[in-house]
Amino acid sequence: MSVESPGIVERLVRDDTDRKRFLKLAGSAGAASFGAFVLAACGGSSKSGSTASTSAAATASTPAAPAGGDVGILNYALTLEYLETEFYSKVLAAKLFTGKALTLIKDFGAQEQAHVVALRGAVSKLGGTPVSRPEGKFPIENANQVAQLAYTVENLGAAAYLGQAANIQSPEVLASALAIHSVEARHAATLGTLVKKPILPNGAFAAPADMSTVLAAVKPFLG
Amino acid sequence: MFENRTTSLAGPELRSANCEPLAATCEPWAATSELSAANVELGAIEVHGMTRGSFIVRGALAAGAVYGTSAVAPFVSQALATTSSTAAGSSSDVEILNFALTLEYLETAFYREKAKQVGLSGQAKAYAEQFGEEEAQHVAALTGAIKEMGGTPVKKPAFVFPVSSEKTFLALASVLENTGVGAYNGAAPSLHGKTVLGVAGSIVQVEARHAAAIDLLINKSPTPDGAFDPPLTMQQVLAKAGPLIKS
Question: Which of B5, B8, B32 should be substituted to probe chain A, the one whose Cβ sees the most A Cβ atoms within 10 Å?
Fold first, then answer.
């Protein structure tokens, strides 16, 4: 939707079987335990009474997460981050970039990898099982084509996180997803300047993308 | 094999880069500990059932302690007015949106009014014009959202921007945009309304894109905090933006 680029959209083929396979992957994780997550996430650093009351208030005001809800979302994000990480890894291996562009591509690849590590940790903390890394396949031809593809992929990633923000139950998971979301946006804008495309493809308000739109868009990159 | 790549890519330098300046970024999954940390710091006046509004006031007061009450007094009055004029229920969302509205007013004034005074050229001028228009749209959207929720939007404050050249203008633009990202990232998890959260998410993504573009223009890293943008507490935001708010 928001992030379509002609090249990607042309290749969109809705395949319900594939989507179901993916969702099964993403949702196979088991029930999220909010209480356990809070203990795991905050146990080391904040044991004061005010923190406890904050957590209690959050729990009381938030509907119980559906089984696999946040874990499913995190595993969905993890799959996208795996693909981004592999993409940047292959781009670097192709040695298409030099200078400042190379530095940026290296940084972005390392940051996507850090997202993978963080998301795997979050899924585990929630009592879920991180999805395994999917096989990716990416057309790697030349620097301009790769930068254009990276721009598309990063815009898609940013839209994917934005599309899930309101579905996340745990404030802790939401805070973490937001911390990643805006970094994807920074990547997208940076690549926009490199390929002379809009740094704000949707103007003043970024558009979200729902899961089926995103999965259809990444389908060509799943091996 | 993949795990090996993990280690080499997310090496010590990345980790250490992520650990500045907020400890929360070292362990992104403890991000709410950071949110809670503000409550811990201000624990002396912790009151059970405190509203977000009183939290805003406390943040403003804490900033006042650092910058002198004259710098933040108007903002404190505004926060107090907001707190007393809104009922319980959805009041905290209104208060958070009013906080965001103040920042958007600030950014709009900066790009539209201050930019003209300074006299920008080239890409800096183009960005200021574009971003000013977008921040103005954020002002309009937040004002509308606050009214829809039955709240009273804060009035546009008067600002003072201590810049006089394109170089210092862009440096402050970087601070403002990056602070905006942290402000939204920090406040969004406290929002109750899903629609409002969606709006905040949509706006913060744009602030992040602005920040990256400005940072690239001044040869800074477009990802100044590495892989995770740290959430900022209202207190931390006020420490940066408060001195620019005159009334």
Answer: B32
